[in-house]
């Protein structure tokens, strides 16, 4: 990580630079922004508010992590720079350990932010590929029992609900050890709880769970019919079985699934070889299942 220290107190700048260099950072020191005349990119800017043109420095480096080194707190040296894009500030005199803690905090935050955007983009692209009925998610009341043979369909429903309500969520697999205890300890504060594999619970466990989540923001997924009149229920009506279903597929169901999902990815020669049948048999299967190749 490349660090630019803009500080006119030379001893302070050198002390910071030595400490950061020892931790693996690559530090450069200048007295003010006026000395900066290169196109080199820096990940972290330690900027003293006592240096000339420090607001110009904030504007120039606003895409980097900027930590202001200030002698006092005021609108000019704190509020304005933060609005312009500075990340944080630390007041002199300070312990170098506290400065390093702030640097690491903002490094971690940016990594998490980038990762979160990547995951969100990936999830949204995957959800667009999953076809489920349209619902008015604003009017759906929770708790809700969601019946679906396909986990992907249930996931798509939940994420669409979350996006519509701008909520955070947590996931608990009811097949996991101590799942009920984990549910009981969950703090709901503007968070939706998504529970999977409701069908595996015993009747007594189900009653305990239902009593606890009453009037709480919970969506329960099951792949079988659940007799319950307490909560709203939605059946996604996805009768097609898939590899991710808990049910055992017949040979015909398996071959139909593979052909349907891979016939536009693999050539007929590759596909028939992977399934273990001839190209003629593949053609016959496609005709039998009424599958058209794009």
List the helices and strands and how they pair.
Blueprint: E1 2-6, H1 10-22, E2 26-30, E3 44-48, H2 54-60, E4 65-70, H3 75-84, E5 88-91, H4 96-128, E6 144-147, H5 151-165, E7 168-173, H6 179-184, E8 191-196, H7 203-213, E9 218-222, E10 232-235, H8 251-262, H9 268-275, H10 279-288
Parallel strand pairs: 1-2, 1-3, 3-4, 4-5, 6-9, 6-10, 7-8, 8-9
Note down, in words, how this protein is organized.
The chain is built from ten helices and ten strands. The protein has three domains: 2-109, Rossmann fold (3-Layer(aba) Sandwich), CATH 3.40.50.2300; 144-235, Rossmann fold (3-Layer(aba) Sandwich); 251-288. It has 294 residues and is α/β, with parallel strands linked by helices. The chain has helices spanning 10-22, 54-60, 75-84, 96-128, 151-165, 179-184, 203-213, 251-262, 268-275, 279-288; strands at 2-6, 26-30, 44-48, 65-70, 88-91, 144-147, 168-173, 191-196, 218-222, 232-235. Helix 6 links the parallel strand 7 (168-173) and strand 8. Strands 2-1-3-4-5 form a five-stranded parallel β-sheet, sandwiched between helices. The chain has a five-stranded parallel β-sheet with strand order 7-8-9-6-10. It is elongated. Residues 2-107 form the Response regulatory domain. InterPro entries: CheY-like_superfamily (IPR011006), Sig_transdc_resp-reg_prd (IPR014483), Sig_transdc_resp-reg_receiver (IPR001789). This is Response regulatory domain-containing protein.
């Amino acid at each position: 990580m490349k660090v630019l220290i803009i500080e006119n107190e030379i001893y302070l700048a050198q002390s910071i630079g030595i400490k950061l260099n020892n931790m693996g950072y690559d530090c450069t020191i200048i007295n003010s922004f006026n000395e900066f005349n290169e196109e080199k990119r820096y990940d972290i800017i330690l900027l003293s508010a006592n240096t000339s043109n420090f607001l110009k420095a904030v504007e120039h480096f606003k895409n980097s992590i900027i930590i202001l080194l200030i002698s006092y707190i005021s609108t000019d040296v704190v509020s304005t720079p933060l609005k312009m894009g500075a990340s944080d500030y630390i007041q002199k005199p300070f312990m170098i350990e506290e400065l390093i803690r702030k640097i690491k905090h903002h490094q971690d935050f940016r990594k998490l932010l980038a990762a979160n955007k990547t995951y969100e983009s990936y999830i949204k692209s995957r959800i667009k590929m999953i076809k489920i009925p349209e619902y008015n998610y604003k009017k759906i009341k929770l708790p809700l029992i969601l019946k679906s043979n396909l986990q992907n369909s249930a996931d798509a429903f939940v994420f669409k609900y979350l996006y519509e309500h701008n909520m955070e969520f947590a996931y608990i697999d009811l097949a996991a050890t101590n799942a009920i205890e984990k549910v009981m300890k969950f703090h709901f504060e503007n968070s939706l709880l998504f529970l999977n594999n409701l069908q595996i619970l015993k009747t007594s466990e189900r009653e305990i769970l239902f009593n606890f989540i009453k009037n709480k923001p919970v969506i329960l997924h099951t792949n079988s019919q659940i007799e319950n009149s307490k909560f709203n229920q939605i059946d996604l009506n996805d009768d097609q079985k898939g590899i991710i279903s808990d049910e055992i597929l017949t040979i015909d169901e398996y071959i139909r699934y593979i052909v349907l999902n891979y016939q536009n990815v693999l050539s007929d020669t590759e596909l028939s070889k992977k399934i273990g049948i001839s190209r003629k048999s593949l053609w016959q299967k496609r005709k039998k299942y009424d599958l058209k190749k794009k």
